[in-house]
Write a structure and sequence with these properties.
The complex is a heterodimer of chains A (524) and B (286). Chain A has 15 helices and 17 strands. With 524 residues, chain A is α+β, with helices and mostly antiparallel strands. The two termini of chain A are 13 Å apart. Chain B is of the alpha+beta class and 286 residues long. Chain B folds into two domains: 11-47 and 122-281, Multidrug efflux transporter AcrB transmembrane fold, CATH 1.20.1640; 54-118, YebC, transcriptional regulation domain (Alpha-Beta Plaits, 2-Layer Sandwich). Helices cover 68% and strands 9% of the residues of chain B. Chain B has helices at 16-41, 49-52, 65-71, 99-107, 120-149, 152-175, 182-208, 213-245, 250-283; strands at residues 54-60, 79-83, 88-93, 111-118. The chains are: A alpha+beta (524), B alpha+beta (286). Chains A and B meet through strand 16, helix 11, helix 13, helix 14 and helix 15 of A and strand 4, helix 5, helix 7 and helix 8 of B.
Chain lengths: 524, 286
C-alpha cells in the first residue's frame, strides 16, 4: 500500500482515532461550558464525553421575551438622563424603576406592557426629547438582555438548581429572545425561581403636615444597587425574620437624610402600625418586592437601635448596616436570593415551555441508540442482498458506521448537547452516506475489469461528480434551518450539514480507496 | 449482481405522454387535496402544537381512556388521546394555564412525563419561519440544479419531481391525519435533499455519458433504485421501531420520508425519465 495513493484512508483513520480520543478519554474540564454555549445543558455521561440535551436527560426549557418598548436614536446625555427618566415615568404613570435611559446607546426603554407606542412617544416629547413612533419598537435593548441573562443564570445556580442557565439567542428576524434550560427540574420549580422580576425596594412611608392637614408620603429610599454586602437570611426568636445588609456610602447618606428630615428618628421610633391599621400606618419602612408591600418595620430606638446611630451620623457612616424585615423566613430567603442575583429588569413573556420527566428522557437514550442500530442492520441486509460480496458490502457498512462515529466525536469536541433532533440528523446522514457509497460502488464495479489505477480514478471522478452535486443540494436544503431559529430543527440541520461535509470530504472518498485496494489486489 | 429486476421495465413500449401521465395525475390529485384542505380549514395542512400554540401534556395512567376522560371532567381541554404503549396519554388544550391540568393529573396519581407549551404568537412566527425555510431550501435546490445541468428540460424535470416528492407526502399527511410539526418540516426538507439524488444520478448518466439512452438509463436505475429502496427500508424500520418505543419526533420524520421516497421512485423513473427521453430524442433535434 502506497501512502501517497491512500492518503484519504489515512485521513479517515486519523479522524477516527481523534474521535475515539475525544469521545472516550476522560477530560476534567468537560463539564464547564454550560450556559454560555447556546443554553445547552452539559451533563457528563459516564462512559463517553458526549453531552445530552434536555430531550435526552430531562428537565425544563423555557423560551421567553423581555417585556418592554425601546425608543432608539434618541438624544440622551449625562445631563438629561435622570430628568428624562423621571418625566417619562411620571407621564406614563409607571415606577421610575421601569424606565431606563441609556447614554451610550441613545435609547430609552419602558418595561411595561400596558404602555402603547403613542403614549411612549408623547411622554418622550414631554420630557423634551424629539421622538416619533417610528423610533419606537417592541422589545428591549441588548444590554437589558445581558442583564437579564446574568440575573437568570445567578438565580438558577444560587437557587439550588445546578447545571442550567440562560442564554440570549437571536432569531433570523433579528429579534432576541432568552432560552432558559434547567436539567432535572420541573416547570413549577423553574418558574418559581425566575417567574417574578424580584425587584426589592425599601420604601419609607410617613405622615407629613401640609396646609390641608396630615397626608401620607412615600419615598423609595433603597433599591437593588444600594447594597455592598448581603448577609444570610435570619429567623431570630424575638425579632422579625429578615436579611442584614450593608449600604453603599452614597445610599447610606441619602437614607440618613430622609430618615432624619422626616421624623423617623424622633417621633417615628417604634411607630409603625401598618399591620394593624394600613389606613393610618404611621412611620414605616416597607419591604416592597415587585411593587407589593410584603412587610413594614418601625424605626428602632433604644440604646442598641438604629435611631441613635442615624442621629449621630458618624457611627452610621462607619457601619451603615440595616436589616430588611420580612413577614416570614421563606420570604427572607427569597429577598436574599433576589438581592444577590439582582433584579430582572423587566418581566418575562414566556413563549414556549417544555418539560420532560428525567425518567422518560433518559429512557429515550438507549432506545434511540437501538433504533439507530436496527436501521443500520436493515441497511446492511439490503446492501448484502444487492452486492452479495463481502468485499464490497462490509467496507460500505463500516464506512457508514465510521461517519456516525466521527460525527459523534465532533459533537463531543464542540460540546454539542445531543437531542432527539440530532439523532434524526445522524440517521439522515447514514441515509445519504449509504446512497453515496452505493453510487461509488456501482460506478467502480461496472462491467470491465479495473485494470489500471487510471481507469479506477476516472470512474471514481465520475462517481464523485454525482456525490458532490447531491451533497451540495442537501447542504443548500438544510442551510435555512441552520440559520432560522426553529429550535429543535437547528440542531438537526447542523448535524446533517456537518455530516454530509465529513462524508463527502473524507469518509466516502476513503471508501473508494478501500475498494480499489481490495479489487486491484485480486487482479494482481 | 442482483439489480432488483428493474431492467425488466421496457420503456420503449410506452410513449412519453403515457409515462408522464400517471405521476402528473397523482401530483394533480395531491394538489387538489391540499387546495381542498386549504378551502375547508384555512390551512394547506393541519398544524401541530409548534405552529398553532397551545399546550400538550403527556402522562401515564393506570386507567383506560374513558376513565382518564372522567378524571378531567370539568377541566378545559381539547382532546385526550392514548399514545404509544397504551398507558400513555396525550392531552391537548389551547388554554394558557396548565396548572389545573397538571394538578388534576397528579391528584389522580398520573405521572406527568412531558409538558409542552407554546404561545399562539410564537406559533404563528414559527409557522412563517418554517414556510420561509421550505421555500428558500426549494429555490436554492432549484437554482443549483439549473447551474449543474445548464439545460432547461433536464433541470425542470428534476425540480418538478422534487416538487411532487414534497406535495404528495403533504397530501398524504392530510389523509392520514398527520399534523405539520417541527419533525415533519425537517422530513420535508430532508426530502428535498434525498429526492434529487436519484434524479441527478439519472440525468448525469443520460446526459454526461456516452452511450445509448436506454443503456445509460438502466444503469442509473440499477444504482438509483438500490439507493432509494435502502433509504425506504431504513426509514420504515425507524418509523416502526421508534413508534414501538414511544420515542417522539423520529416516527414522524420516518413516515414522511417513506411517503416521499416512494413518490420519488415513481417521479424519477416515470416523470423525469419521460422528460429526459423527450429532451434526448426530440428536444435536442429541434
Amino acid at each position: 500500500m502506497n501512502l501517497r495513493e491512500n492518503w484519504r484512508i489515512l485521513v479517515l483513520v486519523i479522524l477516527l482515532v481523534a474521535s475515539a480520543l475525544v469521545l472516550f478519554v476522560p477530560s476534567g474540564s468537560a463539564d464547564g461550558g454550560n450556559g454560555s454555549d447556546g443554553g445547552q445543558i452539559a451533563q457528563d455521561q459516564g462512559v463517553t464525553n458526549l453531552q445530552f440535551g434536555l430531550e435526552l436527560s430531562g428537565g425544563t426549557r423555557l423560551r421567553a421575551q423581555l417585556v418592554g418598548l425601546t425608543a432608539e436614536n434618541v438624544d440622551i446625555t449625562g445631563d438629561n438622563q435622570r430628568e428624562v427618566r423621571q418625566t417619562v415615568a411620571a407621564e406614563l404613570n409607571v415606577s421610575e424603576i421601569d424606565v431606563n435611559a441609556r447614554v451610550e446607546s441613545g435609547t430609552v426603554e419602558v418595561y411595561d406592557d400596558n404602555v402603547t407606542e403613542e403614549e411612549f412617544a408623547d411622554a418622550l416629547t414631554t420630557a423634551g426629547i424629539d421622538a416619533s413612533t417610528d423610533q419606537i419598537r417592541a422589545g428591549v435593548t441588548s444590554q437589558t438582555f445581558d442583564t437579564a441573562e446574568g440575573v437568570l443564570d445567578r438565580r438558577i445556580n444560587k437557587g439550588g438548581l445546578t447545571g442550567g442557565g440562560a442564554s440570549t439567542v437571536q432569531a433570523a428576524t433579528g429579534e432576541d429572545f432568552l432560552v432558559i434550560e434547567v436539567p432535572g427540574a420541573n416547570r413549577t420549580e423553574v418558574k418559581d425561581l425566575i417567574g417574578e422580576p424580584g425587584r426589592v425596594e425599601i420604601v419609607a412611608g410617613y405622615p407629613a403636615q401640609t396646609e390641608n392637614g396630615t397626608e401620607y408620603r412615600t419615598e423609595t429610599v433603597l433599591t437593588q444597587g444600594d447594597f455592598t454586602r448581603i448577609g444570610p437570611a435570619q429567623n431570630p426568636d424575638q425579632a422579625r425574620p429578615g436579611v442584614s445588609v450593608t449600604l453603599t456610602q452614597s445610599a447610606a447618606e441619602e437614607f440618613r437624610t430622609v430618615m432624619v428630615e422626616n421624623g423617623f428618628t424622633e417621633e417615628g421610633i417604634g411607630n409603625c402600625r401598618w399591620q394593624q391599621n394600613p389606613e393610618d400606618p404611621g412611620y414605616c419602612l416597607y419591604t416592597v418586592v415587585d411593587g407589593e408591600r410584603q412587610d413594614a418595620a418601625s424605626m428602632s430606638g433604644g440604646s442598641d437601635g438604629l435611631a441613635p446611630v442615624l442621629r449621630d451620623g458618624e457611627e452610621w457612616q462607619n457601619d451603615p448596616s440595616f436589616r430588611i424585615t420580612t413577614a416570614n423566613f421563606s420570604e427572607a430567603q427569597e429577598v436574599k436570593l433576589n438581592l444577590e442575583s439582582g433584579a430582572l429588569p423587566t418581566e418575562l413573556d414566556i413563549q414556549s415551555e417544555l418539560y420532560l420527566a428525567p425518567s422518560l428522557a433518559q429512557k429515550f437514550k438507549p432506545l434511540a441508540l437501538i433504533t439507530g442500530l436496527v436501521a443500520w442492520l436493515v441497511v446492511s441486509g439490503v446492501v448484502f442482498y444487492r452486492y452479495r460480496e463481502a468485499k464490497v458490502a462490509i467496507p460500505m457498512l463500516l464506512t457508514a458506521g465510521a461517519e456516525v462515529f466521527i460525527l459523534l466525536g465532533f459533537a463531543a469536541a464542540v460540546g454539542l448537547a445531543l437531542d432527539l433532533s440530532h439523532i434524526a440528523g445522524l440517521i439522515a446522514v447514514i441515509g445519504t452516506g449509504v446512497d453515496d457509497l452505493i453510487i461509488i460502488a456501482d460506478e467502480i464495479l461496472q462491467r470491465g475489469e479495473i485494470s489500471t489505477d487510471r481507469v479506477f480514478s476516472n470512474r471514481f471522478k465520475k462517481a464523485f461528480w454525482v456525490i458532490g452535486a447531491a451533497a451540495a443540494t442537501t447542504i443548500i436544503a438544510m442551510s435555512p434551518l441552520a440559520v432560522l431559529s426553529l429550535g429543535d430543527l437547528q440542531g438537526f440541520a447542523i448535524v446533517t450539514i456537518v455530516g454530509v461535509l465529513i462524508g463527502v470530504l473524507v469518509t466516502r472518498p476513503a471508501y473508494g480507496d478501500v475498494l480499489r485496494n481490495l479489487l486491484l489486489d485480486i487482479d494482481d | 449482481m442482483v439489480d432488483f429486476e428493474v431492467s425488466d421495465i421496457d420503456y420503449e413500449q410506452y410513449s412519453n405522454r403515457q409515462l408522464a401521465a400517471i405521476p402528473l395525475a397523482i401530483l394533480g390529485l395531491a394538489l387538489v387535496i391540499i387546495a381542498a384542505w386549504y378551502v375547508m380549514t384555512g390551512v394547506p395542512v393541519d398544524l401541530g402544537l409548534a405552529f398553532t400554540g397551545g399546550t400538550e401534556v403527556r402522562f401515564t395512567a393506570g386507567d383506560d381512556l374513558s376513565e382518564v376522560k372522567d378524571t378531567f371532567e370539568g377541566v378545559e381541554y381539547d382532546s385526550i388521546q392514548s399514545a404509544a404503549g397504551g398507558d400513555t396519554y396525550i392531552l391537548t388544550t389551547q388554554a394558557e394555564d396548565t396548572e389545573e391540568i397538571e394538578r388534576t393529573a397528579r391528584q389522580a396519581g398520573y405521572d406527568v412525563e412531558q409538558v409542552q407549551e407554546r404561545s399562539a404568537s410564537f406559533g404563528a412566527e414559527s409557522q412563517q419561519q418554517a414556510l420561509l425555510g421550505l421555500a428558500i431550501a426549494f429555490l436554492g435546490m432549484s437554482a443549483l440544479v439549473f447551474i449543474l445541468f445548464r439545460t432547461f428540460i433536464p433541470s425542470i424535470a428534476v425540480v418538478l419531481s422534487a416538487f411532487s416528492d414534497i406535495m404528495i407526502p403533504v397530501a398524504l399527511m392530510n389523509i392520514f391525519d398527520i399534523p405539520l410539526t417541527l419533525g415533519t418540516v425537517a422530513a420535508l426538507l430532508m426530502l428535498i435533499g434525498y429526492s434529487v439524488d436519484s434524479d441527478i444520478l439519472l440525468n448525469n448518466h443520460v446526459l454526461r455519458r456516452r452511450g445509448d439512452f436506454y443503456e445509460s438509463a438502466y444503469r442509473a436505475m440499477g444504482t438509483g433504485v438500490t439507493m432509494t429502496l435502502t433509504s425506504i427500508a431504513a426509514m420504515a424500520v425507524m418509523t416502526v421501531v421508534a413508534r414501538l418505543f414511544g420515542i417522539p419526533l423520529l416516527p414522524e420524520i420516518g413516515l414522511i420520508l417513506v411517503f416521499g421516497l416512494v413518490a420519488d421512485l415513481m417521479n424519477t423513473y416515470m416523470l423525469n425519465m419521460s422528460l429526459l427521453r423527450y429532451y434526448k430524442y426530440e428536444g435536442v433535434a429541434k
